[in-house]
Amino acid sequence: MPADYFPVLVHFIIVVGLAAAILGVSAWVGVRRPSREKLSPYECGIAPVGDARERFSVSFYLVGMLFILFDVEAAFLYPWAVVYRSLKWFGFFEMFMFIVVLFAGFVYIWKKGALDWSR
To answer: What whole-number distance in Å separates Cα of residue 75 and Cα of residue 85?
Structure first.
């Protein structure tokens, strides 16, 4: 049984060795020219305003969680689309109910104002 996992172990050793080699060569060969712009916390060309540790609104995190929630539904749609023909009408109605429940949740959070940034 442990002999079955030997190729996985070899693959893991190769991957770790390759990653270490790439990082080592990058640190050894790379040119370092620090400047005021490169050492600033923001690299977008805009001068930073305020402290980097200021508090964010709860709405920011709520919208982030809602994005993840509604993004996960796309992960359910892809496998369904692959086997759609073999599921026939049963699969169609099951996915229809899934989308109806998801849409009801979306309408609920919209009416509650969770997506309103102006308040």
So the answer is: 18
